[in-house]
């Protein structure tokens, strides 16, 4: 017979997540639901303090109310309420919300990404927990929480600037089907956060023989993002654990903008009709100079200012950091300014061109890496 359950057995204490869920529910109930049930309804109030104003014993030093004395205060209340609801959903479902997700979900409410970043940190301080404990953060955990990396048969790592491209390649399971063998896809969704950079550094330390490549837009921001991954940001240039000097720039580069007829293909950046394919090779250069690109756009004033700044920064790079990539980045920026054009990674994704492009590039780069390890 099955053993009967003892009705007097002590109940198990709730785990950390359940306790945090209950606390958020209590805050919303006491600060929103209960005041609305009063006759007449009372002002709503939610606890919030900045990390600098958190008291030593964990008590909260401030509240945000609705209706507030100003429109800004009322907006702040709605922002905090939205974050509490999002954290509650994340904890209940196990889904991770990034701060960027939260901003785009209610961009008009927050007004800026910086506002979301500040309030998330303030809310975590108010509750006495870390941002990741709220289910808000990065899908990649902080590096100090990673005890072991199992990279298995991974032969390459591709760091992708654009989330859209990352999702396209993930949907087709490119990391499994690539001719270069099994790999790992990573995206920082534009300029990377510290967690992503630290994770990639940890991957390199764990398996330094795995080549790591960057796929970024052909524009000054793309090159700056590559620079941020490889050499670190200006603000944190002293943080060696955030640098990835072994990172190689795969593309997009100037070479990808023109005809690739030598590989039997045509660059998707060009709007080449059947009639133009019959143009003699001796005339193709002059034709391409007058033919407008279908997926290239002019540099903006901001692009040109950033390009000039990067050229200045690269000219100051010396010693071991001034490798072939630094020289190439300088040359690409100069060409970009001269041509006055830029292009996004998505422009390569025309009828699967991005996959074919990666196949050609990764296979060649991986082969060269293997030969290099053999000293050939």
UniProtKB/TrEMBL annotation:
The keyword Ribonucleoprotein does not apply. The keyword Cell inner membrane does not apply. Residues 75-136 form the Spo11/DNA topoisomerase VI subunit A N-terminal domain. Its cofactor is Mg(2+). It comes from Cephalotrichum gorgonifer. GO terms for cellular component: nuclear chromosome. It catalyses: ATP-dependent breakage, passage and rejoining of double-stranded DNA. Pfam families: TOP6A-Spo11_Toprim, TP6A_N. Keywords: DNA-binding, Isomerase, Magnesium, Metal-binding, Topoisomerase. Belongs to the TOP6A family. One of its GO terms (biological process) is meiotic DNA double-strand break formation. Residues 156-352 form the Topoisomerase 6 subunit A/Spo11 TOPRIM domain. It comes from the Eukaryota. This is DNA topoisomerase (ATP-hydrolyzing). One of its GO terms (molecular function) is metal ion binding. Coiled coil: none annotated. Its EC number is 5.6.2.2. InterPro entries: Spo11/TopoVI_A, Spo11/TopoVI_A_N, Spo11/TopoVI_A_sf, TOPRIM_Topo6A/Spo11, WH-like_DNA-bd_sf. The active site is at residue 104. It is an enzyme of class 5 (isomerase).
